[in-house]
TrEMBL record:
Top-level taxonomic group: Bacteria
UniProt subcellular location: Cell membrane
Alphabetized Gene3D superfamilies for the sequence: 6.10.340.10, Histidine kinase-like ATPase, C-terminal domain (3.30.565.10)
PROSITE patterns: HAMP
Key word Transmembrane present: yes
Domain HAMP: 318-375
Protein name per UniProt: Sensor histidine kinase
Keywords: ATP-binding, Cell membrane, Kinase, Membrane, Nucleotide-binding, Phosphoprotein, Transferase, Transmembrane, Transmembrane helix, Two-component regulatory system
Membrane topology: Multi-pass membrane protein
A GO molecular-function descriptor: kinase activity
Length: 600
C-alpha cells in the first residue's frame, strides 16, 4: 500500500510541511529585531532626507520671491510715491496699479507661490490682479502682531481673507518680511508670501511610518507648520522639542511612553534653512507589521516548497494530472471568452490513448465549433445592424426633399424669384452635405450649418409666422454626432406648432451637462400625449426597427431619430420628452460627448 500514488503523495506533503514551518519559525524569531532597527534607521531617515530636500528647494524659491520684491525698484518707487503728501491721488493710484502688476508678474513666475501681498502701515494692502483696498483689519490678525512684536516671520497653515476673496479656499503657509529695512518694528511696509499648505502636505502624506505612523513638519517653537492636528494627540513629543532644538545632532531616535502606557518611537531631523523640524511618530507595536511581512515572505518560501511537492506529485502522476490540468486551464480560457487560448492550452492529439485523451480531444473539438458559431452569429448581427442604420438614414432625405420641392413649385408659381433662388442655394448646400455618405457621423458644427440652411428655407416658407432660434455652446462644435438628427425634430416641431395656431415658436438648444451632449428642440405646439410618449419609450427599448421603415405614422421623423441614436449608442443613449418652456413639447437627446477628426 505504501507504493500507491496516494500514500506517497501524503508522505511527501507531510515532510515538506514540517520543513517549511520549521524554517519559517526559525527565521521569524531570529530576524525580527534586526528588521525593526533597520526600518527605523534606514527607511525613516531616507524618507525624511527626501522630503527635507523638497522643503529646502521650496523655501529657496520662496526666499527668491521675497528677495525680488524687497529689491524691486517698483516697490521703492511705490513707497516713495505714497510717502509724498504733495503728489495727487491719481499718481498714487497709478503707483498702486504698477505695484499690483509687478506682483502679478512675480507670482506667475513661481508656480509654488499662491499670492504675494504688500501691506502698508496706514492700512492699505495690494496684491496681484489689480486687487487693493484700504482695510486695516489685517493689523488685528495674530500673525501681524507676532511679526511686529516678536519678529516671527513664518505663519502656520491658516485661511487668508485675501485668498478667500479670490475664491481660493485652501489653507496657506505664509512668509512675512519687512520692506525697506530688516527690522519689522521700523518698517512701514511688509510683504506676505502665501503658498498652499497642500503643496507641502501632498508629498508628506505619501510618506508613511508603518501603518499608523505620521510625519509632522514643525517650526522653531515646536508647533505644526501645516496645521496637522494629529500632532496635538502626542503631548509627550512636545516635551522633547526644547531638548532636540538645543542638541547638536541633526537627526536621532527617541523612545517615548504615551498616555496609554504604550511605547512610541519618535524620529526627528532638523532642516537647515529656517530651523524647522521633521518629526515622525509611530507606535512601537505598529512596527511589528513588518514582521507580518516577513511571515508572508516565509509563507511564500513555504509555498515554493509546497510547489516542489506538487511537482513531485505531478511527476508521479504525470499521465493523469497533466492532461487534466490542461483541460481545466482550457476551461478557464473558455469561461473568459478566449477560445484561441483554450485551443493553445490543449494540443491536438494524433491518437486517442485513453479516456482522458478522449475527453480532451472532444473538448478541443467543441471549443473550435463553438468559436465558429459565435463568430458567424456576431458577423451576421453586425451586418444586420449596419443595414438597419443605413436604411433608417436613407428614410430621412426623400421625406425632406419632397417637401422642399413642393415649396419651390409654390414659389415659382408666385413669381418669387429671389426667394426661389435662396431656397435652391440652401437646398443645394444641404444636398451636398447629404451626399457625403462615407461616414455616418458628422461634426456638430456641420450639423448645425445644415440646420441653419433648413431654417432659412422654413423662414421663406412661413415668413413672420415662424420664430425659430438656435442657442449653442461654441465649445461643443468639434463633437461628433450621427447625421440628420436635428432636422427631423425641427420639422416635427414646426408642423405641430402650426397645427392649431397661426404662429409657431421653436427653440433649438445645444449644451453640455457633465460629460453628456444635450440636444433640445422645444415648440409651442399641441404637446405629446401620454400614450404616444409611452409608446416611443417602449420602442426605444426594442432592438427591431423594421416597423419604423414600414410605418406611415406622422411621427416617422422622431421615431427615425430615436432608432438611429439607439442603434449607434446603445445603452449610452437617453432621451426625454416633456412639456417645454413654450407650453408645447420639449424633446431632449442625451448623447455621450465624442470628438475627433472625421473623413466626411
Amino acid at each position: 500500500m505504501f507504493y500507491s500514488l496516494k500514500n506517497r503523495l501524503i508522505v511527501f506533503f507531510v515532510v515538506l510541511l514540517f520543513v517549511s514551518f520549521g524554517t519559517m519559525s526559525y527565521l521569524f524569531f531570529t530576524e525580527s529585531r534586526s528588521i525593526i532597527r533597520s526600518y527605523i534607521e534606514s527607511s525613516a531617515f531616507e524618507k525624511m532626507d527626501e522630503y527635507g530636500s523638497f522643503v529646502n528647494m521650496a523655501l529657496v524659491q520662496i526666499y527668491d520671491v521675497s528677495s525680488i520684491v524687497f529689491n524691486s525698484s517698483t516697490v521703492k518707487n511705490w513707497d516713495n510715491t505714497l510717502s509724498d503728501p504733495a503728489l495727487p491721488a491719481g499718481e498714487k493710484m497709478l503707483a498702486n496699479i504698477n505695484l499690483s502688476q509687478f506682483l502679478t508678474q512675480t507670482t506667475n513666475n513661481y508656480s509654488i507661490v499662491s499670492s504675494v501681498t504688500v501691506y502698508r502701515q496706514e492700512g492699505l494692502w495690494i496684491t496681484a490682479d489689480n486687487q487693493m483696498m484700504n482695510d486695516s483689519s489685517f493689523m488685528k490678525e495674530a500673525w501681524y502682531d507676532r511679526f511686529k512684536t516678536r519678529g516671527i516671520q513664518w505663519v502656520s497653515a491658516h485661511k487668508d481673507p485675501i485668498e478667500l476673496n479670490r475664491s481660493k479656499t485652501f489653507d496657506v503657509l505664509s512668509l512675512l518680511l519687512p520692506i525697506g529695512t530688516f527690522e519689522p518694528l521700523q518698517s512701514k511696509n511688509m510683504m506676505k508670501i502665501n503658498v498652499s499648505s497642500q503643496f507641502f502636505l501632498e508629498p508628506l502624506s505619501r510618506i508613511h511610518l508603518g501603518e499608523k505612523g505620521t510625519i509632522f513638519l514643525l517650526d522653531g517653537q515646536g508647533d505644526s507648520v501645516l496645521g496637522q492636528h494629529e500632532y496635538d494627540s502626542h503631548p509627550e513629543a512636545a516635551k522633547q522639542m526644547e531638548a532636540i532644538r538645543n542638541s547638536t545632532q541633526q537627526n536621532g531616535v527617541i523612545y517615548l511612553e504615551n498616555e496609554a502606557g504604550a511605547k512610541d518611537i519618535m524620529v526627528y531631523k532638523k532642516l537647515k534653512l529656517n530651523n524647522w523640524l521633521l518629526v515622525g511618530i509611530v507606535p512601537e507595536v505598529d512596527l511589528y507589521g513588518n514582521l507580518y511581512k516577513l511571515r508572508t515572505s516565509l509563507l511564500i518560501f513555504g509555498s515554493l516548497l509546497l510547489v516542489g511537492a506538487i511537482a513531485a506529485a505531478i511527476w508521479l502522476s504525470h499521465g493523469i494530472s497533466k492532461p487534466l490540468s490542461r483541460l481545466a486551464s482550457g476551461m478557464r480560457y473558455v469561461q473568459m471568452g478566449d477560445f484561441d487560448g483554450a485551443e493553445n492550452r490543449i494540443p491536438a492529439d494524433e491518437e486517442v490513448r485513453n479516456e482522458v485523451s478522449y475527453v480532451t480531444a472532444t473538448f478541443r473539438n467543441m471549443v473550435s465549433r463553438l468559436r465558429y458559431h459565435i463568430k458567424t452569429e456576431f458577423e451576421l448581427k453586425l451586418l444586420k445592424q449596419q443595414a438597419e442604420y443605413k436604411a433608417l438614414l436613407m428614410q430621412i432625405n426623400p421625406h425632406f426633399l419632397f417637401n422642399t420641392l413642393e415649396l419651390l413649385s409654390s414659389l415659382a408659381m408666385q413669381h418669387r424669384t429671389q426667394d426661389t433662388v435662396k431656397v435652391i442655394e440652401a437646398l443645394g448646400k444641404m444636398m451636398r452635405f447629404s451626399l457625403k455618405i462615407s461616414n455616418d457621423l458628422t461634426p456638430l458644427e456641420e450639423e448645425l450649418t445644415y440646420v441653419r440652411h433648413y431654417a432659412s428655407i422654413l423662414q421663406i416658407r412661413f415668413a413672420d409666422r415662424l420664430n425659430l432660434s438656435l442657442e449653442e455652446d461654441e465649445s461643443l462644435r468639434s463633437c461628433v454626432i450621427p447625421k440628420f438628427i436635428l432636422q427631423p425634430l425641427i420639422e416635427n416641431a414646426v408642423k405641430y406648432s402650426f397645427k392649431e395656431q397661426a404662429e409657431a415658436k421653436v427653440i433649438v438648444r445645444v449644451r453640455r451637462e457633465d460629460q453628456r451632449l444635450i440636444l433640445t428642440v422645444a415648440d409651442n405646439g399641441t404637446g405629446i400625449t401620454l400614450d404616444l410618449h409611452q409608446q416611443l419609450r417602449a420602442e426605444s427599448l426594442n432592438s427591431h426597427f423594421d416597423h419604423i421603415l414600414k410605418t406611415r405614422s406622422e411621427q416617422i421623423g422622431l421615431r427615425n431619430v430615436l432608432a438611429r441614436c439607439q442603434l449607434y449608442y446603445g445603452n449610452l443613449f437617453e432621451f426625454e420628452i416633456a412639456p417645454g418652456e413654450l407650453a408645447g413639447t420639449s424633446i431632449s437627446l442625451r448623447l455621450p460627448i465624442q470628438g475627433g477628426s472625421l473623413d466626411v
